[in-house]
Design goal:
Two copies of one chain form a homodimer.
Chain A: H1 3-27, E1 35-39, H2 45-58, E2 62-67, H3 76-81, E3 88-92, H4 98-101, H5 104-122, E4 127-133, H6 135-140, H7 146-154, E5 161-165, H8 171-176, E6 179-187
Parallel strand pairs in A: 1-5, 1-6, 2-3, 2-4, 4-5
């Protein structure tokens, strides 16, 4: 095909695509707070949530963060978003990964303390986005019960968004969610012997 | 099993897990700039890249952003990260999605202008992370050639990280990448008639 032919075919294809997309946008008029879940074994679950946090701040809205499991080392996102204490209520509640603590009763107690903080954020009308980072790990280990967690999430203000991250999201959480992304590992530099690096992994 | 039994089994399992993970961390000693690709039809490809940008800034490092396709509307991430002009070199080069422009020659010219800006960022030793947002769309449509793009990416400073986002990443890009995440759509609120909302979609 000639280059001019490709241009014309492109125009026709894009006109059809625009018609379909515009119709779908016109239909999608409902607005309410979403429950988003980022799960899977790939990289990007927490990062994507922090990217949405940046978006939220860009729109002049407030956000809350509870990190359930991480926290042994200070992360770049924590240092960065703590610079905006008027806009971001930031809470690191975990004490490292569960294979570092190795103490189930202590992990349970910590998870419950963290949930008390999350519940308070989920009750605030002035907070547009609540990020529950690595909550899936606490649920998967049974440190918190899904029924309790969902009851508090469902009782939140109507326009508030919630993002839950972590591997192994429970099926009941996926059922309750509006948007779910499964972040699949295709390959990871760590597998090739590359160390975790600032800005990328933490 | 009793609760005490579960605690003991948990301890043993976490001790084994810690041994495996610590051994893998000890082996992973190589450090160099990574090429990361976020692809797939799910939500979170760009957000995850912007989350890593926040991490990078948290570590006191500089970053560059080129948005190849988006740009018809100002996004929350753009407003937010433009607040740090000393740390973030932010460039929105596209003129909306290809189904909005419908003009292939113009899209090609815009993609080439955008790549000239990207190449300049890829040449800077002081920039720790270069985010090439929606570059995959420009590559998939043939607006840029993969060979040219990879040559510039591979010639970058040794410690610089690059993140490429967008659906339909070309196989040659995946081969060249260190880390690839396929963000799979499990469900999306838009499918249920919910409008795109500030902080979440833009």
């Amino acid at each position: 095909m000639t280059d001019a032919g490709r241009d014309i075919r492109h125009l026709a294809r894009m006109q059809r695509k625009k018609a379909v997309i515009d119709a779908r946008i016109a239909q999608a008029q409902d607005e309410h707070g979403l429950l988003l879940v980022h799960t899977g074994n790939g990289k990007g679950k927490s990062s994507a949530a922090f990217g949405m946090l940046a978006r939220t701040l860009g729109h002049g809205l407030k956000a809350g963060v509870v990190q359930f499991i991480k926290g042994a080392a200070t992360t770049g996102e924590e240092v960065f978003f703590r610079r905006f204490p008027d806009l971001v209520s930031y809470h690191v509640m975990g004490e490292g990964f569960t294979w570092e603590t190795q103490d189930r009763q202590r992990d349970i107690a910590k998870a419950r303390e963290a949930w008390a903080v999350a519940r308070e954020l989920l009750g605030r009308e002035d907070i547009a986005l609540v990020l529950l980072d690595e909550l899936n790990i606490a649920l998967k280990h049974g440190y918190l019960t899904l029924d309790d967690v969902l009851a508090d999430i469902q009782a939140r203000p109507r326009r508030q968004h919630v993002i839950v991250t972590g591997r192994g999201a429970l099926p009941g959480l996926l059922d309750a969610a509006d948007t779910v992304t499964d972040m699949q590992l295709i390959k990871h530099a760590f597998q090739a012997g590359v160390k975790a690096q600032a800005g990328i992994e933490f």
